[in-house]
Amino acid sequence: MEYVINIGLYELIPLSILLFSKLKPKKICVFTFWVLFLFSALSYDVGWDYIPYLNDIKNLNIERHEFLEKQLMALSFNLDFYQLFFIVNHLLILLCVLYTIKNESRCITLSIIVFICFPFMFLTGLSTIRSALATAIIFWATGKFLKDKRILLYLVVVLICFFIHKSSILSLLILFFYYIPLNRWGNLVLLVTAFLVGGMGIIPSFNNLFFFNNELLSDVVERYDRYVQGGGDTGSQQLVQIIFVGINIMNIIFYKSIGKTDIIRKYITLINIGCCLFFVFRGNTVLASRFSRLFYLFVVLVIPYYIDIIKIGRKNAVGLIVGVCLIIFVYQLYVPNYNGMDPWRINTYWPYKFFFLQ
């Protein structure tokens, strides 16, 4: 019963947004911002990294974090308002993502639903806050600057994001493949090659030589050795990746149908790069997820193009895609993934609690 109640509360988020989009579609981004911002900014112990972050701020144990996040943590500590760290991060995440969706998506409501429901996006951002912020900013900068070839500004943003989360250095791959896009066969060859390389175990064999002895690269993946020692591979992580691999394969199959513009073809390639990184490093799924999630956010801009190839009418096609998204959303709330101290708790996202009531 507790599970049903909590799932119902979470489902109100996408359902309320869908309802509002019917009533006032032009205000949907504003409405979505306030719903998601209040939900994330007021939350307490939602997401598996919330309590570790909170303890780091309380104890001013911030040396392992990047420069900009350390300053925000120190400010939260000095103001004796620890929730400020979470509020500012979630504010920036939502502003970057929703701004990009509003200006880049051909179906804003559907892109918003994908962002809310898919793994590595809104819910995951409640946990991996620094990584989520860096990903959101890079997502915004890609649409804002690369389209107009303002490469220097993009590089400045990448540098800023490096002081938020070091994994953002991988966004240099976005710069490379954005201007050297691959066609369907190029994407397929790259994907198959990555799958074979990962299966041969070539990359993991370089662990001691390449990762452990390089302080910078070790920081990029946040102490890669900790993931290896911890096993770093879970069934839930594998299933989450299967969702994106499936979408990527469909992108390649329907490349000509959905890749109607040069920009979308670029985004299809970037999603494929994310899947390639997963395959190459799939010996450790947590590490693979750290690498690939930076590219998966572009799914929110590609999914709306599937409306045209689902030959059941636009309204029914949107309804079908939304239905699949809601199933994926519920799945994330169902998977046992809590790693805290409460022996009765199963999922890291529920029960939902307000920080000001703790």
What does this molecule look like?
The protein is mostly helical. The chain has two domains: 1-168 and 311-358, no CATH class; 181-309, no CATH class. The protein has 20 helices and two strands. It has helices at residues 2-23, 28-41, 50-58, 67-78, 83-104, 108-117, 122-125, 129-145, 151-162, 172-179, 184-200, 207-211, 215-220, 224-229, 235-253, 255-258, 262-280, 285-296, 299-302, 314-334; strands at 43-44, 353-354. It has a two-stranded antiparallel sheet with strand order 1-2. α5 packs parallel to α8 (129-145) and α15 crosses α18. The chain starts with a helix and ends with a strand. Keywords: Membrane, Transmembrane, Transmembrane helix. This is EpsG family protein.
Structural class, judged by helices and strands?
Answer: mainly alpha
Stretches where pLDDT falls below 50 for ≥5 residues? Answer: 205-214, 221-233
Which word captures the global form? globular
The whole-number mean of residue pLDDT values reads 87
Count all strands and give the number.
Answer: 2
Q: Tell me the distance between the termini.
A: 24 Å
Strand content: under 5%
The helix content is: 55-70%
Largest sheet, in brief, is: 2 strands, antiparallel
Number of domains as seen in the coordinates: 2
Q: Which value, in Å, is the CA radius of gyration?
A: 20 Å
State the order of secondary-structure elements, H for helix, E for strand.
Answer: HHEHHHHHHHHHHHHHHHHHHE
Query: Which strands sit side by side, in order, in the main sheet?
Result: 1-2
Q: What is the number of helices?
A: 20
